[in-house]
From TrEMBL:
Residues 22-141, 165-274 form the PBP domain. PANTHER family: PERIPLASMIC PHOSPHATE BINDING COMPONENT OF PHOSPHATE ABC TRANSPORTER, PHOSPHATE-BINDING PROTEIN PSTS. Residues 1-22 form the signal peptide. The keyword Transit peptide does not apply. The lineage of its organism: Bacteria, Pseudomonadati, Campylobacterota, Epsilonproteobacteria, Campylobacterales. It comes from the Bacteria. SUPFAM superfamilies: Periplasmic binding protein-like II. Keywords: Signal. This is PBP domain-containing protein. Pfam families: PBP_like_2 (PF12849). Gene3D superfamilies: Periplasmic binding protein-like II. The keyword Ligase does not apply.
């Protein structure tokens, strides 16, 4: 009898611990305003509200704001109850990606359209020149580099550089920056006559500095807005990227519904025991 009571007590304590953990507060982590990743995320999951006929971001003010992909991942990796979102190509083993509606984020699942949470990696320019055209032609058709980095290439034409001389300044999205760094390094091996500077910030800044003539190429990790196009820029798709929902590796959750993501990031769902 004593043994049964002890076992029952241990089981009860274990169950209680699990319930307590499951009911812990959710710690939503967001990207900053102006981030293309945030823009794509809020649009895909409908985390928006109407204001004077326009849809605006409705992310809860209780979410912690991070200013880059790297900071997002570090924050989630260091908090057991955190949940955030990143570029699929940036995913590493410091955090855990979870499935959405039962489908894991992967290049294969984006290609077969079972995982629908994806967005374009765009580049924008205002003024063109032979160096810009040569570099973009190389980058957009760099299928091996794009796919090895975890993204989906959209074009595969054969490229022969004309090796123009000059300097390029490329600025914008922190999500696109890691891929762009690889493309720049590879392009320099084909065309050693070029100097290329990359300035990491966010997608909106990427558009603004191109419009203002500060940068030659802007990196935009979301759809380019109609109002931005009216400022005289043109857009090209560099690659397709998935968005991954990430949690701490100690979190037992493996799947989440789109509705739960919406409710977490609008502040309607605040504890893990509510998550479906």
């Amino acid at each position: 009898m004593m043994k049964k009571c002890i076992l029952g007590l241990v089981a009860g304590l274990t169950l209680g611990a699990n319930i307590a953990m499951a009911a812990e507060n959710i710690y939503p982590i967001s990207r900053e305003m102006g981030s293309g990743t945030r823009g794509a995320f809020t649009e895909i999951f409908g985390i928006q509200k109407e204001l004077k006929g326009k849809k605006i971001d409705a992310t809860t003010t209780k979410a912690e704001v991070t200013n880059s992909t790297g900071v997002m991942m570090t924050t989630v990796a260091n908090s057991k109850n955190a949940i955030g979102y990143i570029s699929l190509g940036s995913l590493n083993d410091t955090v855990k990606a979870i499935s959405v509606e039962g489908v894991m984020p992967s290049v294969e699942n984006i290609n077969n359209k079972s995982y629908k949470i994806s967005r374009p990696f765009n580049v924008v320019i205002k003024k063109s020149n032979p160096l810009i055209e040569d570099f973009l032609a190389y980058s957009i058709n760099a299928k091996a580099i794009i796919e090895k980095s975890g993204y989906i290439a959209t074009k595969t034409k054969k490229f022969v550089s004309k090796k123009p001389k000059g300097k390029l300044v490329i600025a914008g999205s922190s999500s696109i920056t890691p891929l762009m760094e690889k493309l720049v390094e590879s392009y320099k091996s084909v065309n050693p006559n070029v100097v290329i500077e990359i300035q990491q910030s966010d997608s909106t800044t990427g558009v603004n500095v191109v419009v203002e003539g500060i940068a030659d190429i802007g990196m935009v990790s979301r759809e380019v807005k109609e109002a931005e196009l009216k400022r005289g820029i043109s857009v090209r798709v560099l690659a397709i990227d998935g968005l991954a929902i990430i949690v701490n590796k100690a979190n037992p959750i493996t799947n989440i519904t789109k509705d739960s993501v919406y409710k977490i990031f609008t502040g309607e769902m605040t504890t893990w025991d509510q998550v479906k």
